[in-house]
Every structure is written in C-alpha cells, then in structure tokens.
Amino acid sequence: MALEKIMRKLVSFVHVSLDGFVASTAEGPAGLDWISISPDLFEYVEQRIQQTDTALYGRNTYQMMESYWPTAADKPDASPHDHAHSRWYKSAFKVVLSKTLLQKDHPNTHIISGNLSDEISKLKHNAGGEILIFGSPSATHSLMAENLIDEYWLFVNPVLLGQGIPLFKNVKDRTSLMLVKSNVFPSGVVCLQYEVKRNQ
Predict the structure, then answer these.
(1) I want to staple 197 with a disulfide (CB 3.0 to 4.6 A). Which of 12, 76, 81, 176 is the partner?
(2) Is the distance from CB of 139 to CB of 70 less than 8 angstroms?
(3) In this protein, which residues make up the domain named Bacterial bifunctional deaminase-reductase C-terminal (predicted)?
(4) What separation in angstroms does the CA of 82 have from each of 32, 46, 89, 179?
(5) What is the pTM of this model?
(6) Helix/strand number for the chain, H first, E second
(7) Residues 191/155, Cβ–Cβ less than 8 Å
C-alpha cells in the first residue's frame, strides 16, 4: 500500500473531439487543425507541465516534437509559451515507445521497444514526478491494452469530427474512473481530469 502511494503516475494528456477522436483523417499536422488553443489554455497546461519532469511519446509524436521544441525559443516571434515549453522540453527526460529508433541516436531519451508492462513498471518505481503522455495515440492504445495509464487529462474540444483516430482503443476490461477536477475555458474547451480507480 505504501509503495502504491509513492509510485509515479502515468498521465494521458490529450485534446479530444466531443465524439472521442484525437486526430481527424487528414495527414500530419492537418489532422490536429480542429484543436482550439488560446493563451489561457496554454497557461493552464504549462502550469501543470512544469510540475513534472518526464514526457512519454510514440515515435511519430516524438519526431514532431524534436523537430520543433528544441529551437522554438530561438525564433524571433517566439511566444512566452514557446520559451517556457522549449526550456522544459530540453530538460525533461523523454521516454519513447518505438521498435525502430536507436537509443544511441537520442541522448536524454529512453527508448522502449518491448516488454512494455515491465519497462513502464520500472519507470513508475523510479524517483521523479508524473510521466505525461502527450498525444501519441498509438502509444496510448498500447498502454491502455496493458491497463498502465493512471490518469487522464482530457481537453474536450467543442467539435464533432465524425471519423479519425479514436482516443479509447484496446481497453479490454471495464475501467472505473473518478472525476477529480474540471475546468471550462471561454473557447468552449473543457478540461476533465480523471483518475483510474484501481482495485486495492
């Protein structure tokens, strides 16, 4: 019981449409052009992110992040959000689920290519703050299949996509959640924070 209390949580941090999709059928960044962003939402998200020190990504999301965040603060029109998140990204420990990336090519990054449940369990028992999963639907689905996600921060956008990549997939068993907190933004986005209720 005491061990459970100090274990790090794995938190899914994701924008989702009202009908449950995390990306539309469009390719690349265009698949996310329905996401409503605003300075107040950025600030809310950044406050939460700054309390953590580890990010988990699937390969595609990681490569998108690597192509932008390390140098985002260097651009002449960089926003305060760009500066804050770029600093955080560069110092954060990154975990990537991938069967193709090589560890030696990615410093300050831990590549998980197999034994998902064991590897995530080791991470949860290591010292540190929460582990945030940013987007990364394929990685999230793999983690769901093993019932490894402890908390969901869902940014529900007021849009129906009709089709796309679903958030929830590979959920094998009925899973009870507890709503811990909610926050409504002027844009109509609602942040819902759910904890997974584990059977003790």
Answers:
(1) 176
(2) no
(3) 9-190
(4) 18, 10, 10, 30
(5) 0.86
(6) 6, 10
(7) yes
